[in-house]
Design brief:
By secondary structure, the chain is an alpha+beta fold. The chain folds into 2 domains: 40 residues; 285 residues, (Glycosyl)asparaginase (Glutamine Phosphoribosylpyrophosphate, subunit 1, domain 1), CATH 3.60.20.30. The chain is built from 11 helices and 12 strands. Strands 4-3-2-6-5-1-11-12 form an 8-stranded mixed beta sheet. Strands 7-8-9-10 form a 4-stranded antiparallel beta sheet. The longest helix is centred in the N-terminal third of the chain and has 39 residues. The N and C termini lie far apart (92 Å). It binds aspartic acid. Aspartic acid binds next to strand 8.
Length: 375
């Protein structure tokens, strides 16, 4: 009898132990699952939801051969004032709890409306003397993105890019189709003359003259291979594209870029600005990036995505990743330009390998900081 009871108790004990082990295993799997789920979602992790969320905002107005010696005090003051106005506009939206997308769009609209920058009014002209604008925007929370290219009459291409992101199932709309969509959505149209400024007409004339001289020189010099020509090409552009990156109080990142492209570009040329991953990228897991510079190089290197990838796969900081891409990879390929980036802690970095880059951010104490040259 005793032996039977012993046997029964032993069986009970073993069953209980097995049950406990199974429960523990399930709980462990559950924990692992939720960790996996959390790290796969694009929301910034928030250990303490009541803790003050960092937020931050930065803009650029283009990189290139921007030299103090060539800038009049009036021009410099005008650039500084517009950059300050735009950076504060975006920052104040974030300060009041607004979204990173709203901040990016608002600041870029201001820069597009200013004739100083190469976006919207004041865009550079293509070889036929016309404006062809590109823009893109990306939401780091959802990885949704919208972009437009070859825009000729929309006052604010960045707003059209946002509508593509939010109200279509597409990412990139071009030319007439994009403008037809803008019309459907009631966006503001402007006649072609609105976008064209005297400054850009003169710039195009200078570019055409430079091209003629280069052509003459090339005809008299011994032939170089295209690879050699590419390697010795100096960074001559004054690009002037505009862009913004933001981190809002909800922990969401966003980036936007808007441009007229490159002066004297071929009709139909598309640069990096409307190409997601090249001139623009945002991902809540890493950072938001907006680029400016020699678009063809930005496309070949997927500059904006590369910054994010170095952070995600190599664990680099936003500063190290951005510096590696701009000062090493882009430069060694022969590409001139720069970028602005912000990470999910609100750290901002703005490297460029050209003499200057119009740029601005708001410091932690709320003071706007505007910079142009190598300082
Ligand atoms: N990245 C632009 C483009 O190549 C030019 C610029 O940044 O100003 O279209």
């Amino acid at each position: 009898m005793r032996a039977i009871w012993k046997g029964v108790s032993l069986t009970l004990l073993i069953t209980t132990l097995l049950g406990i082990t199974t429960i523990l295993r399930v709980q462990e799997t559950g924990a692992k699952e939720s960790v996996k789920k959390r790290s796969m979602s694009n929301q910034s992790p928030r250990t303490n939801p009541s803790a003050a969320q960092p937020f931050g905002f930065a803009i650029h107005g283009g990189a290139g051969t921007i030299l103090k010696s060539e800038m009049s005090p009036e021009m410099e003051a005008a650039y500084r004032a517009k950059l300050q106005e735009a950076v504060l506009a975006g920052y104040n939206i974030l300060k009041d709890g607004g979204s990173s997308l709203d901040a990016v769009e608002a600041a870029i609209r201001l820069l597009e409306d200013s004739p100083l920058f190469n976006a919207g009014k004041g865009s550079v002209l293509n070889s036929a003397g016309a404006v062809e604008m590109d823009a893109s925007i990306m939401d780091g929370k959802t990885l949704k993105a919208g972009a437009v290219t070859d825009i000729k009459r929309i006052k604010n291409p960045i707003s059209l890019a946002r509508l593509v992101m939010e109200q279509t199932t597409h990412v990139l709309l071009a030319s007439d189709g994009a403008e037809a969509f803008a019309k459907e959505k009631g966006l503001e149209f402007m006649p072609p003359e609105y976008f064209i400024t005297d400054r850009r007409i003169k710039e195009l004339e200078r570019e055409k003259e430079k091209e003629r001289k280069k052509q003459q020189q090339q005809n008299t010099k011994p032939k170089q291979t295209s690879r050699e020509t590419e390697l010795v090409a100096p960074f001559e552009g004054k690009y002037g594209t505009v862009g913004a990156v933001a981190l809002d109080k909800q922990g969401n990142l966003a980036a936007g870029t808007s441009t007229g492209g490159k002066s004297n570009k071929r009709v139909g040329r598309v640069g990096d600005s409307p190409i997601i991953g090249a001139g623009n990228y945002a991902n809540n897991r890493t950072c938001a990036v907006s680029g400016t510079g020699d678009g063809e190089y930005f496309m070949r290197l997927l500059v904006a995505y590369d910054v994010s990838a170095l952070m995600e796969y190599k664990g680099m900081s936003v500063e190290d990743a951005a510096r590696t891409v701009v000062m090493e990879k882009l430069k060694s390929l022969g590409g001139g330009g720069g970028l602005i980036a912000i990470d999910r802690q609100g750290r901002i970095t703005m490297p460029f390998n050209t003499p200057g880059m119009y740029r601005a951010y708001v410091a932690a104490d709320g003071t706007p900081v505007v910079k142009i040259y190598q300082d």
